[in-house]
Specification:
By secondary structure, the chain is an all-alpha fold. Helix content is 79%, strand content 0%. Helix 1 packs antiparallel against helix 2. The longest helix is centred in the last third of the chain and has 46 residues. The radius of gyration is 33 Å and the shape is elongated. The chain starts with a helix and ends with a helix. The mean pLDDT is 85.
């Protein structure tokens, strides 16, 4: 945290080229840290913990966002305006019930069912190949037996 603050202050005083040279870091990192500092102050450098918001908190944040705008919601709640936009969309599409769901990550049931179906398909394929192999072995044995009988007759 102190390092990032030092870099941002040096950048503001000396510019991009000097900062890149002195600290050997990318332009992208410098601009990102500057934005975090300008938007949130020193708090912007702290690691964010994953916070679960209640439906009521989400509704309050959405209302604040509508009244005050993107920058204000970022400063007050230290939250991405994209996240608030997603909540607003969910509210319009599904109502408050949609806000109560945890929509993060992949849909676990679908992924599990897909894996189960693939496993069943693979097992069926293995079983079919085993049967085919057994049939071919039996056929080969019968052909060998017939050829052996024909050789004995001669």
């Amino acid at each position: 945290m102190e390092f990032k603050l030092e870099v941002v202050k040096y950048f503001k005083e000396n510019g991009k080229a000097e900062t890149v040279k002195k600290y050997n870091i990318s332009n992208t990192a410098i601009y990102k840290w500057e934005h975090l500092y300008d938007t949130y102050g020193i708090e912007g450098f702290k690691r964010k913990t994953v916070k679960k918001y209640t439906v009521e908190e989400k509704l309050n944040i959405i209302d604040f966002y509508k009244k005050e705008g993107k920058i204000s919601v970022q400063k007050k709640y230290n939250i991405s305006s994209t996240l608030v936009n997603n909540w607003e969309r969910i509210l319009l599409e599904q109502g408050e019930i949609g806000l109560s769901k945890d929509n993060r990550g992949r849909k676990r049931e679908n992924a599990i069912m897909k894996d189960v179906n693939q496993s069943e398909d693979l097992l069926a394929e293995v079983q079919r190949l085993r049967m085919e192999n057994a049939y071919l072995k039996k056929l080969h044995a019968l052909v060998q037996k017939r050829e052996k009988k024909q050789r004995k007759k001669k």
